[in-house]
């Protein structure tokens, strides 16, 4: 049947195979069969695994970085499962399995204590760091896997220090509980990012299927490897090689992620480039520059000012007189946030009305950064975000610098006077419109955000009307 006889084709996005239909001599519509039986058999096998392991509608139903991330995540899971098999053997030896003198009661108590300390560790870590797991998702993901390898390394030494098996297992159980919380929470955040068709449940389920298959294959492989390596130097060399591969695979996995929402570090990278160059970096470039190790990366302060959003104002309200504070409230009558500045400690407090949107949060952050830079210019403080070589280039920082030059500099450190801030707020409004447009053009999403936010919200408009 020639191509011209085809009347319609169809394609399932999950299977990707194109099926063609044509008319025949009996005036019926029939499917054009594949002539290559080997190719057809291969396609059936490939399509079976695609449907079983990948989300419905792949690749259109997931983010563009899905394949690369899952590939590296599969590699790290395989390595981790094999290391886990060697660790399990070491732990069983350490608690006395196979030792005629070992007490079953002693082993049971050790195991109960191990599980109990792990449960306590989960509760404490979730309370301590739960709020920051979304913001630094990549960093906590890497941290969790490194900590997991550290815990397994300690457990591998358990047969040599079996007299301290309870203490060692309790310590490693706490470490693994942190791994469980950090790894599980960051995995949920990554799944939310990957599920672009509101299909988070299915993406999560298929991720679980992929991991189960990998663990199954790793388990069978481990049976073979456990018989080959048994307490020799080659075993340690093999395990440490696997750990290196595990960490490396995790690094490539998180580096392959392309988040299109802002956290503090991505926002800092975008803003510092935008103020100096006048263009917004796209998500691909920003994610490539984003650090993935805890304690590393670009500083998120601007000109020495730290921006605190959604935190209590009790630490800064005593810096204001009642009259100054009321004048400040007037400046933000048309906004859903207020910004209070502490010039002495270089702190910016941004407080929101209840029900703030992502766009409001980003606008407030941008406003706070502009105010931090303007406060430094007004007080003659050197700008770490600004270079004089950019003086003749029309960028946001030069426009801000030119705008602030019209105001007389202060001889003592002080906040910008309220009468100047009226015009300044209008200037920021125009600048934010240009920044917002650039964000949209370059593919940033304002549907959600991962900026660090406190839980405090304020109500000032109903009270200011009574007192002003």
TrEMBL record:
Xref: InterPro entries: RUS_fam, UVB_sens_C, UVB_sens_RUS_dom
Keyword Transferase tagged: no
Stretches assigned to the Root UVB sensitive protein C-terminal domain: 280-460
Transmembrane segments: 213-230, 236-258
GO CC entries: membrane
Organism of provenance: Rhamnusium bicolor
Superkingdom, taxonomy of origin: Eukaryota
Domain Protein root UVB sensitive/RUS: residue ranges: 45-276
Protein name stated in the entry: Uncharacterized protein
Subcellular location: Membrane
Annotated keywords: Membrane, Transmembrane, Transmembrane helix
PANTHER family given in the database record: RUS FAMILY MEMBER 1, RUS1 FAMILY PROTEIN C16ORF58
Similarity-based family: Belongs to the RUS1 family.
């Amino acid at each position: 049947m020639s191509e011209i006889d085809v009347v319609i084709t169809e394609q399932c996005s999950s299977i990707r195979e194109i099926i063609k239909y044509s008319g025949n001599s009996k005036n019926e519509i029939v499917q054009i069969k594949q002539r290559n039986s080997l190719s057809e058999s291969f396609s059936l096998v490939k399509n079976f695994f695609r449907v079983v392991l990948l989300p419905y509608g792949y690749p259109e139903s997931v983010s563009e970085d899905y394949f690369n991330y899952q590939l590296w995540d599969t590699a790290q899971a395989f390595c981790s499962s094999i290391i886990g098999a060697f660790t399990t053997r070491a732990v069983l030896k350490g608690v006395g399995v196979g030792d005629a003198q070992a007490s079953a009661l002693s082993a049971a108590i050790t195991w109960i204590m191990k599980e109990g300390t792990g449960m306590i560790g989960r509760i404490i870590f979730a309370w301590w760091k739960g709020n920051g797991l979304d913001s630094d998702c990549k960093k906590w993901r890497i941290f969790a896997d490194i900590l997991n390898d550290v815990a397994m390394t300690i457990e591998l030494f358990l047969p040599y220090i079996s007299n301290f098996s309870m203490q060692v297992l309790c310590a490693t159980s706490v470490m693994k509980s942190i791994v469980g919380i950090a790894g599980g929470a960051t995995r949920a955040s990554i799944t939310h990012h990957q599920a672009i068709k509101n299909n988070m449940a299915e993406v999560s389920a298929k991720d679980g299927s992929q991991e189960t298959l990998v663990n199954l294959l790793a388990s069978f492989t481990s049976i073979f490897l456990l018989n080959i390596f048994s307490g020799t130097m080659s075993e340690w060399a093999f395990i440490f090689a696997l750990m290196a591969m595990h960490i490396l695979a995790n690094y490539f996995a998180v580096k392959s992620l392309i988040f299109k929402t802002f956290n503090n570090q991505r926002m800092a990278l975008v803003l510092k480039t935008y103020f100096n160059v006048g263009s917004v970096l796209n998500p691909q470039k920003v994610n490539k520059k984003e650090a993935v190790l805890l304690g590393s990366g670009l500083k998120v302060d601007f000109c020495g000012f730290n921006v605190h959003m959604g935190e209590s104002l009790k630490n800064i309200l005593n810096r204001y007189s009642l009259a100054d504070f009321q004048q400040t409230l007037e400046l933000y009558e048309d906004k859903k946030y207020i910004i209070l500045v502490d010039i002495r400690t270089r702190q910016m407090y941004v407080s929101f009305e209840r029900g703030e949107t992502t766009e409001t949060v980003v606008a407030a952050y941008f406003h706070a950064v502009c105010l931090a830079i303007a406060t430094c210019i007004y007080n003659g403080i050197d700008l770490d975000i600004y270079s004089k070589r950019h003086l003749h280039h029309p960028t946001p920082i030069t426009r801000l610098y030119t705008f602030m030059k019209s105001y007389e500099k202060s001889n003592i450190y002080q906040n910008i006077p309220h009468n100047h801030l009226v015009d300044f707020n209008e200037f920021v409004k125009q600048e934010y419109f240009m920044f917002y447009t650039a964000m949209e053009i370059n593919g940033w999403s304002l549907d959600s955000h991962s900026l660090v936010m406190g839980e405090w919200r304020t109500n000032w408009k109903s009270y200011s009307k009574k007192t002003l």
